[in-house]
């Protein structure tokens, strides 16, 4: 059965919609350039509402320890999702914080999948995410989709999840086409950048459970 992570939550009502709708994971973004960025105080308030069966995922872009340490505490993080982070740094973060690590692999063309190979044994999950346009301020969360057919027949070096441009209208096709264990969405359940929509969250989670 495929489960879902709802990422970039910033408000109690939308967090509650994700939890009551059956999300397996919720994502808190710690990246100042993102419209979904959370302060430590805001993260602490949200984290306290999350029941034990739902994973709290912290989303970071090549983070330094002076961000990771307080974010892990405030967000009571269960998982660290790392974007644009080199394999050596991923290994150091995993060893230091002893938390499961999901590493994003940005995909546009088949050659991009080569970046997953060095992650074998280093990460707990690979997140195949769409590559955002050259010069974009965000490495994710822009509703960009990649050709899911690129994943066909590849040997995955670790368990994996799928993200990039998913929404309630295409997630069933994504699940059937790729066999993803976990699907991850951010902008596809928003009414504006950084503003989650409870009805879209519910529709997305309904589509995942029906797929
Ligand atoms: O959402 C963000 O602002 C963000 C910032 C920095 C790194 C990753 C971010 N989001 C991740 O992007 C993917 C896909 O998002 P979308 O559904 O295409 O909008 C997802 O994994 C988010 O965790």
TrEMBL record:
Keywords: Amino-acid biosynthesis, Aromatic amino acid biosynthesis, Isomerase, Tryptophan biosynthesis. GO terms for biological process: L-tryptophan biosynthetic process. It holds the Pfam family PRAI. The keyword Cell membrane does not apply. It is an enzyme of class 5 (isomerase). InterPro entries: Aldolase_TIM, PRAI_dom, RibuloseP-bd_barrel, TrpF_fam. Its EC number is 5.3.1.24. Pathway: Amino-acid biosynthesis; L-tryptophan biosynthesis; L-tryptophan from chorismate: step 3/5. The keyword Isomerase applies. Residues 4-206 form the N-(5'phosphoribosyl) anthranilate isomerase (PRAI) domain. It catalyses: N-(5-phospho-beta-D-ribosyl)anthranilate = 1-(2-carboxyphenylamino)-1-deoxy-D-ribulose 5-phosphate. CDD domains: PRAI. GO terms for molecular function: phosphoribosylanthranilate isomerase activity. NCBIfam families: PRK01222.1-1. Belongs to the TrpF family. HAMAP family: PRAI. This is N-(5'-phosphoribosyl)anthranilate isomerase. It comes from Sphingomonas spermidinifaciens. The lineage of its organism: Bacteria, Pseudomonadati, Pseudomonadota, Alphaproteobacteria, Sphingomonadales.
């Amino acid at each position: 059965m495929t489960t879902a992570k709802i990422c970039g939550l910033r408000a109690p009502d939308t967090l509650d919609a994700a939890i009551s709708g059956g999300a397996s994971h919720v994502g808190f973004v710690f990246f100042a350039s993102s419209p979904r960025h959370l302060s430590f105080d805001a993260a602490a308030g949200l984290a306290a509402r999350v029941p034990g069966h739902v994973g709290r995922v912290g989303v970071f872009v090549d983070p330094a320890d002076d961000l990771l340490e307080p974010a892990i505490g405030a967000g009571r993080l269960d998982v660290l999702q790392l974007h644009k982070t080199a394999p050596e740094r991923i290994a150091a973060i995993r060893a230091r914080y002893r938390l499961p690590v999901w590493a994003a692999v940005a995909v546009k063309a088949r050659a991009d999948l080569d970046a997953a190979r060095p992650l074998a044994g280093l990460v707990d999950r690979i997140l195949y995410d769409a590559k955002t346009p050259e010069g974009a301020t965000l490495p994710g969360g822009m509703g960009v989709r990649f050709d899911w057919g690129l994943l066909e027949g590849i040997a995955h070096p670790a368990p994996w999840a799928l993200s990039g441009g998913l929404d309630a209208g295409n997630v069933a096709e994504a699940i059937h086409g790729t066999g993803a264990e976990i699907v991850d969405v951010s902008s596809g359940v928003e009414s504006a950048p950084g503003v989650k929509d409870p009805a879209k969250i519910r529709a997305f989670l309904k589509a995942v459970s029906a797929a």
